[in-house]
Amino acid sequence: MFDLVSNGPWHPFRDFSYNYLLLSHPRHSQGTSAMPFGNTHNQLKMKYSAEAEYPDLTKHNNHMAKALTPAMYQRLRSKQTPSGFTLDDVIQTGVDNPGHPFIMTVGCVAGDEETYEVFKELLDPVIEDRHGGYKPTDKHKTDLNPANLKGGDDLDPKYVLSSRVRTGRSIRGFCLPPHCSRGERRAIEKLSVEALSALTGDLKGKYYALKNMTEAEQQQLIDDHFLFDKPVSPLLLASGMARDWPDARGIWLGVIHGDLVIPLMPNHVSDPSVLPWHNDNKTFLVWVNEEDHLRVISMQKGGNMKEVFTRFCTGLTKIEELFKTKGHEFMWNEHLGYILTCPSNLGTGLRGGVHVKLPNLSKHSKFEEVLKRLRLQKRGTGGVDTAAVGGVFDISNADRLGFSEVD
Amino acid sequence: MTKNCHNDYKMKFSLEEEYPDLSQHNNHMAKALTKEIYEKLRSKSTPSGFTLDDIIQTGVDNPGHPFIMTVGCVAGDEESYEVFKDLLDPVISDRHGGYKPTDKHNTDLNWENLKGGDDLDPNYVQSSRVRTGRSIKGYTLPPHNSRGERRAVEKLSIEAMTSLDGEFKGKYYPLKDMTEKEQDQLIADHFLFDKPVSPLLLASGMARDWPDARGIYHNDNKTFLVWVNEEDHLRVISMQKGGNMKEVFKRFCVGLQKIEDVFKKHNHGFMWNEHLGFILTCPSNLGTGLRGGVHVKLPKLSTHPKFEEILTRLRLQKRGTGGVDTASVGGVFDISNADRLGSSEVQQVQLVVDGVKLMIEMEKKLEKGESIDDMIPAQK
After folding, report:
1. Is B369 labeled as ligand-binding?
2. A244 CB near a chain B CB, below 8 Å?
3. What residues does the Phosphagen kinase C-terminal domain cover (chain A) (predicted)?
4. pLDDT digits (tens, 9 = 90+) for A31-79
């Protein structure tokens, strides 16, 4: 019949080129799910009662839906942060994405640093539930001194294939990705590029803006699992963080091979002997304006987590100093540690882990229990929610808030 | 004008810093927007708080395609078309064949004014359909509305539709309460609309809070259907098998009128003005918002070298039978009016009726191996 509203197969965004767009009629599916809304204005909504505006969360299973109540909604709905982020902005992603019976998503985001204060009545219980009972009065400890890590340089490389540590950082004075305007995002990019370009020695690297990337550079970065795509997860998209993609997004990549830094160049793509990262490449990489202002990643093949962590801490500390020389610091406070877009990443924002072969242990009946007792979590080697391949698991810390990076 | 805190915050940044990068873009918004216009409009907002960035976000996020010209902007409320006319007037002009800011649009929903249309050859015409959209005055549009507003629109719509009788009598199915069985039936009938997946629609914000306050109404005969809170407040569809477009159009006009009467009783009539006709979310649907067409078998004519030319002259467009941009199957095409703004409903449906009639005659000639050169119409 006419103008069918049909759902075709879901296509993940893999291609940065503008032809990803599905060009046919809006009702034919191709690709993504929920994307952001405009900047809805709060005053108009106050004409309607709290009950008329209260979201239907009956089918929902996420932290926001567990914490929100009609009375809380009534109290918070008239508020906004100084930059104009409202309660509905905080919760939209959780309303639009009811969740999954087995996976507990967070269902809310911050639009700026003040969100965690103005909407603490909602976010404190969310944080408490997500971070093992963390109380509004608790203090978070930050420790980025790699010397405090004992051992970690001798994980058996026959089992540990690679090691990696990542975290996020937000630049104080700017709104966060769900809320920031193009002007802000570009300012963050500019500052970040300036700061990162001042890194020297074995942290030296190069910035690749997403919108100027050549096809060859793009392919190379995808092959090496460095490139981040425009998000396709409805969880992220509904928060508004993908607006204006790929404007002001980019990847800063420093690839270290011994003491020599080999920046990614298209003309090296055809000469594999020049590419260091297929062997024992050691990498320090920064994503700009993806889910957070900055995502900082240190990784290398093998089991020398100490080296990975040392480079991570050194790099982060240097970057922070460079930002400070420009009059900008990272968002941090003594209660929540590092402030990031998603409440699940507060504290250290750190996920440190290895790809490790555990074909026998992983089948042991006590595997889950062992992980839990060790305060660790498992994922497949493709990241969250992927399957393990060949008995190789991604094992990382489960905690973010209430424990330091070194812990 | 209500104070929009977030927009004021953005004013701290210069025009240069905030102006979107449209270098890769090919849509009506990108063609019309300039730095001067952006500078002039960026501090404004409609009374409900819709801003320039809200209008253009979908066009910024969806650069478009080299061959298809998308609109790239949406309205958040009736006032958007006034407050942001510096951008929307050129978009409208470009999209609607040179329509000027001073032009007046003619609305004619008197089905009796349609000549003929009841005798399209059913050997060729498989089905006939007319659809349009309506917005309810006093509420903001799907890109902008809150849950409270959307629910209020749904409530009013249910009242309007459940008051219908005779051939219009039917039932409303809210999306969120639908049973599996109801859902399967509606899918089998091709009535059910899904949560949109197109980035074009999603980037505008119209899918927020899905499926809250969305639903479908249809009559028992399955010839009259209303979508509530999808891309517009209401989408009204009349359809049936065969070629009796007159009957389809009559049902369409009568049903629309009955629904409008109920809304008017509550002082929430349809959004309309004499310049833009019916106000809808997407500027491409202004005017009549009407797409009237048929599924018609034209295997020979569609392969004729002058097919596209004929369609253009008849002011018609073709689509595959799955809708926009699908392929035609078995030589069956969806043929409908190309215009929306600047001509009335009767005029647009008349073009479909007359045009399809002519094309069927051409098809018959081609079947007999005869030439159609003397039948090629002049530009309408």
Report:
1. no
2. yes
3. 159-407
4. 332 323 334 478 888 989 999 999 999 999 999 999 999 999 999 999 9
Compute the nearest-CA separation of B17 from chain A (Å): 4
pTM as predicted? 0.85
pLDDT digits over B123-147, tens only?
Answer: 999 999 999 999 999 999 999 999 9
> In degrees rounded to 5, what are phi and psi of residue B7?
-65, -40
Lowest mean pLDDT among B32-36, B157-161, B201-205: B201-205
Residues 313-352 of chain B whose Cβ lies under 8 A from any Cβ of chain A: 319, 321-326, 334
Judge if ipTM > 0.90: no
Are B61 and A6 an interchain contact pair (Cβ–Cβ within 8 Å)?
no
Contacts of A181 in chain B (CB under 8 A): 9-10, 13, 18, 53
What pLDDT was estimated at residue B326?
62
What separation in angstroms does the CA of A215 have from each of A193, A285, A286, A332, B146? 22, 20, 20, 38, 41
* Cβ neighbours of A139 (radius 10 Å): 11
Q: Is A39 on the interface with B (CB under 8 A)?
A: yes
**Do the Cβ atoms of B198 and A211 come within 8 Å?**
no
Minimal-distance CA residue of chain B relative to A51: B148
| Cβ distance of A183 and B194 shorter than 8 Å | no
Surface of A (135-164) touching B: CB under 8 A: none
Q: For residue B47, what is the nearest residue in chain A, using CA coordinates?
A: A44
Structural element, H or E, at residue B316: strand B316-319
Give me the mean pLDDT over the B209-222 stretch: 95
CA-based nearest residue to B87, from B29, B44, B48, B143: B29
A347 belongs to an annotated ligand binding site: no
Q: Can you list the alpha helix ranges (DSSP code H) found in A13-112?
A: 42-45, 50-53, 63-67, 70-76, 87-96
Query: What digits encode the pLDDT tens for the residues A109-126?
Result: 999 999 999 999 999 999
DSSP state of A228: P
Question: In sequence order, what DSSP letters do the residues of A122-188 get, joined into one string?
Answer: HHHHHHHHHTTT--TT--------GGGS---S---TTTEEEEEEEEEE-BTTS--TTT--HHHHHHH
Cβ-contact A255, A206 below 8 angstroms = no
Tell me: the pLDDT tens digits for A72-89? 999 999 999 999 999 999
Cβ-based contacts under 8 A for chains A and B? 222
